[in-house]
Amino acid sequence: MRQGALAYGILALLLAAVWGIELFLVPWTDPYLTDIVIRVGINLLAVMGLALVLGFTGQFSLGHAGFMAVGAYAAAASTLYAGVPPVGGIVVGGLVAALAGFGVGLPTLRLSGDYLAVVTLGFNGIIIVLIQNSPALGGAQGLTGLPVATTFGLTFTCVVLGGLFIRNLLVSPLGRVFEAVRDNEIATRSLGIDTTRAKVLAFVVGAFWAGVSGALIAYYRSSIFPSQFQFDRSIEQVAMVVLGGTGSLSGPLIAATILSALPEVLRPVAQYRMVIYSIVLIAMMILRPTGLLGNHELSDVLKRLWQKRPGARSTAA
Amino acid sequence: MSEALLELRKTGIRFGGLRAVSDLDLVLPVGVLHGLIGPNGAGKTTVFNLVTGIYEPTEGDILLAGRSLKGVAPAKVAAAGIGRTFQNIRLFAGLSVIENVKVGMHRHLESTLLDAVLRTPRYRRVEVEAEEQCRTLLETFGLLALAEQPADSLAYGLRRRLEIARALATKPRLLLLDEPAAGMNPSEADDLMHLIRWVRDTFEVTILLIEHHMPVVMGICERITVLDHGALIAEGSPDEIRRDPKVIEAYLGADVHAGPA
Amino acid sequence: MTLLLQQLLNGFSLGAIYALIALGYTMVYGTLQLINFAHGEVYMMGAFAALYLAKVSGVADNPTIPGAIVVMLGAMAFCAVLGMTIERVAYRPLRNSSRLNMLITAIGVSLLLQNLGLLMFGALQDFPSLLPEARWTVSGVMVRSNDLVIFGVTATLMVVLTWIVERTQLGRAMRAVSHSRDAAALMGIPADRIVVATFAIGSVLAGAAAVLVAMDKHTIRPDMGMTFGLKAFVAAVLGGIGSVPGAVAGGLLLGLAETLVSGYVSSTFRDAIAFLLLILILLYKPSGLFGKHVPEKV
Ligand SMILES: Nc1ncnc2c1ncn2[C@@H]1O[C@H](COP(=O)(O)OP(=O)(O)O)[C@@H](O)[C@H]1O
Ligand SMILES: [Mg+2]
Questions:
Q1: How far does C295 lie from chain B, in Å, by closest CA?
Q2: What is the pLDDT of residues C147-198, one digit of tens each?
Q3: Are C289 and C252 in contact (CB under 8 A)?
Q4: C230-265, pLDDT tens digit by residue?
Q5: What is the mean pLDDT of chain C?
Q6: Within an 8 Å CB–CB cutoff, is residue C98 touching chain B?
Q7: Does ligand 1 lie within 6 Å of residue C293's CB atom?
Q8: Is the CB of C295 under 6 A from ligand 1?
Q9: Is B164 inside any structural domain?
Q10: Which of B141, B167, C230, C280 could bridge across to B83 with cysteines, CB 3.0–4.6 Å?
Q11: Which ligand 1 atom sits closest to the C-alpha of B44?
Q12: Could you give the CA distance from residue B6 to residue B65 in angstroms, rounded to a whole number?
């Protein structure tokens, strides 16, 4: 009883904070800063979905940006061709991306994990090729003339909803099953659990939030291009999850925040960005394969630090 | 057909040229505690893998309460009421002790994606019930104090116990235990064997047990099947098995009290 | 009819290249159960090494058959060293970690090489003729000397590889390791050395493929190994991952499918064919055309 009320209380509080900032802070903030924050928020949405798929369920998806593309173009098409308003378009984008996730995931997730990496990577490439060759979707020149609706408030409303959605899912029985699949799929099956179904479910949820993230991009600058959703974006997201910690939700979100703001700060070394990413990725796998936070959440780490302080004093005395 | 819970009929499997199990007949009446022994590499674990659908038999058939399990996927076999443990322990290392057991119970929890995300009253009720049942189970296995510890922090013997508790959480009719006492000292093994018998009586499960600690196997099993080179060489009561010359010969040279295969 | 013959010729030519690269994927997968994503970049680096060699040795200005052979052997040797280095530096420290970690590392190595290539070589470079080129028309079908070179080199390498795998001590050890690394170790086979040899052989084949493609296309790019490598991996899966004849069959099948589709349907969807085939084979015969289904040992 209390627990459920608490969850809704937190939701209301977070949304109030988001809209408070939107109404009272954003108008007086440097638009350049607001721009960075919105881009971070859009990345957070995609990365939380990937954290679920890769970090918690252990499924190596290399085409997350492909689902963003599906969401972005589905939203854009629904607005341009059917007059759906942006908020509806965001839902459409999420749902169509989820459907795509189902179509890609069902045949592949039955098999050993390696195939998923290849199929999702291929899917990312195919989606781009299809868009580039589809006149209705604007081809390589992209789609223009979309309404601008992606504000700080809308972006972070989605981030809060997505974050609570995934967090609630992770601490639920289904969340335990996802982690069980990651830790030992054979044992999970031996407990009567349909592991393919669990994997597909995680995959579909991840694709949904990637789709929402893509839809927000569609309504941000009134135009979208296929090149925004290429493979390097998928890799960047994998790097964020891996660096933040597989098996943690807050870790990847912290990593995503830092890594999406970093290029803005470090513009001069922009051309070395991918080189740095790849070296960090390799070094991390060899030296600290569980990432920054491992499978802990930020709250655990803070709690432990807090408890350590009086403890440390008493042992010293 | 009357009382047999599990029945293997001329079951066999080959891996390339190797016949890991051949022509095996085995009948387990409801409620029995049946031992499966044999030297290392005899095919005991393979029998478990055949029954649980991890391998599909290349010959013969396997019936659970009269229904064929041939070609049935592992998850469906488990859902039909067969729980098992693994010779090389397979716990969920990233989950706590109690969460491991809760995953075992998952099939019996009615809670959907939307329940979880929206925190419905049903979701909370189901979680509270699961928590209670799992705690009771952990208490039975002497693991309650460790409920919140990560599963991979447990000592070896406790991991084996946890794996049994997790399998029991699926509420099986038939429980397959693959060397549950491996790596335990004789007194721990003895405790575990009494626990297993107590589990059989309390939970009313049928148990098929692979074990190398001969004194305990002989002490608690009602019937014993002996495999060698994938084939049945003897079946009977512990006394009959003890005296069977074929069994003695199969074990000759091999230490009867040998550790894990 | 002429069109069909032309497509078949082109398809076999492309398929031979896929097969050469697919062999590297399949052999490494056989021993380590790792999709070596960096294999495509080894192939790419082989092309740039060949370009450098051709310029330094003067073969670029004066194409001859011995010169071309020297450049090709040089590129193959370079790739062997690169492949072995990758194994030693990036993969060996992870021999006992999870498959996911290995896979992420492989992606990291692939990205690293590709982006280093971009920084060092720019977006693309011209590749000179290493051989005098000629083309003939045989009853309407255009046959290029490059096609013949591709067939000749591929066939030679296949024969050598088959001999190594089937007839030598090394080949037997490789097969033992891919059957079971633990069992091979018990039999006294030094698994690490076999793994290194596998990387070397696969990389040598990729180096040869790189020179063949570069000679044929006359441009090379740092991202040439990305999609091409991935498709070669798909070819390996089509044939049955881990199977040497499977990689060859899968490569030829994929080459034919791609040229036939772009010839008769539309070249737009050429790049999608590989992944459509992949999804179909995963749905209907996950072990591939030549692969045997081996249940995981529990
Ligand atoms: N998936 C498999 N592939 C090949 N051989 C296997 C497989 N599973 C088991 N075997 C072989 O079958 C034989 C019996 O093994 P097992 O059932 O594990 O014996 P144990 O009686 O010690 O449990 C062994 O020779 C083993 O190597
Ligand atoms: Mg065994």
A1: 7
A2: 999 999 999 999 999 999 888 988 888 888 887 777 788 788 888 889 999 9
A3: no
A4: 899 999 999 988 888 899 999 999 999 999 988 888
A5: 90
A6: no
A7: no
A8: yes
A9: no
A10: B167
A11: 21
A12: 6
